[in-house]
Design brief:
This protein is α/β, with parallel strands linked by helices and about 325 residues long. It is built from nine helices and nine strands. It has two domains: about 30 residues; about 200 residues, Leucine-rich repeat, LRR (right-handed beta-alpha superhelix) (Alpha-Beta Horseshoe), CATH 3.80.10. α6 packs parallel to α7 and α7 packs parallel to α8. It comes from Gymnopilus dilepis.
């Protein structure tokens, strides 16, 4: 008969004491809280939350798009250098200890930003759309933008989808349909999202093709939590997914046209009855009537004129 090599555990007798728990020994500068978790008792992490918040208010942070009057003013104040400095500071603080992470991680991932001038995960600065347009081999830059967007979306969805409240991104045509699909999936998870700005950097594909792909991906999507939307002449189908939007910024980008000033597809904007504030940025007046008819209940109207002098504008238009 073959003997078993496994040893059997001896049952504990009724009069034996249960095994004692292993307690963590506090190191120098640490104390145990009410549940036994070791926390720092000295230095910056030991300060009250109110003082830490006050200290962080002196670090220049990104401009809140919900606090400025117009998209143009927001772009004027937006700084890639300042944003990179703010993000690196909060990232370092959130990696100090668990208490600092709980405090600063929600602020770090409140905005999801991908635009020219920001540093990606590799440390390289993302180029502006004008640099991409002047570059012969655009594939490298196109990939950088979309990979950085997917990276940030993955971080927020894994850690806490409730962190994200602001999304300000520029995306390219690299793997366009899968990237838009992943963005739409994450938008449905971000229950506290208030603002989204989606701009498309067009390089090869015709604008009408990118718009058609966007429509097909977003056909059955709804994001009622979004209150402010900023789109361009390709990403405008996103408006139909935001029934709760109260403020809309629309930019007609000349780089999206194929021949002169005319858009090669019909600008079939969805009817947005809830929009109260409308901001238009035009290089020309070609579709002003079509756009304004999609927002019949607007009470505040902002127009930014681009590439057209004021004396050349017929106010009757």
């Amino acid at each position: 008969m073959r003997s078993s090599s496994k040893s059997l555990k001896r049952p504990r007798r009724s009069n034996e004491a249960p095994p004692s728990k292993v307690h963590q020994v506090p190191k120098e500068g640490q104390v145990a809280d009410s549940v036994g978790t070791l926390v720092n008792a000295n230095g910056l992490p030991a300060l009250p939350v109110e003082l830490l918040t006050e200290i962080m208010s002196y670090i220049p942070g990104p401009v809140d798009p919900l606090s400025v009057k117009s998209r143009t003013a927001f772009l004027t104040y937006r700084s890639g250098y300042g944003h990179n400095l703010w993000r690196n500071t909060l990232l370092s603080l959130s990696q100090t200890c668990r208490r600092m992470r709980r405090l600063f991680e929600p602020q770090l991932w409140k905005p999801i930003d991908v635009w020219g001038g920001l540093k990606g995960n590799s440390g390289e600065v993302l180029p502006s759309r004008w640099v991409i347009a002047a570059t012969y081999d655009k594939r490298k830059f196109e990939k950088q933008f979309n990979e950085e967007l997917i990276r940030q979306l993955e971080i927020v969805t894994v850690r806490n989808p409730g962190y994200s409240q602001i999304i300000d991104v520029e995306i390219t045509e690299f793997s366009f349909k899968p990237v838009i699909g992943e963005l739409a999936r994450c938008l449905a998870l971000f229950s506290k999202l208030q603002f989204i700005s989606l701009y498309i950097i067009k390089t090869k594909r015709k604008a009408v093709m990118s718009t058609s792909l966007l429509k097909s991906v977003l056909a059955k999507c709804t994001f009622p939590q979004i209150r402010s939307v900023s789109v361009d002449s390709i990403s405008y189908p996103l408006l139909g997914c935001c029934p709760g939007a109260r403020s809309v910024s629309f930019k007609y980008d000349l780089s999206h046209t194929e021949y002169g000033y005319r858009y090669e597809g019909d600008l079939d904007l969805p009817l947005c009855l809830g929009v109260e504030k409308l901001e238009l940025t035009f290089p020309f007046i070609g579709y002003a009537e079509d756009i304004t008819s999609a927002f019949p209940n607007v009470s505040e109207f902002v127009i930014n004129w681009e590439r057209r002098p004021l004396h050349d504008i017929n106010m009757a238009e």
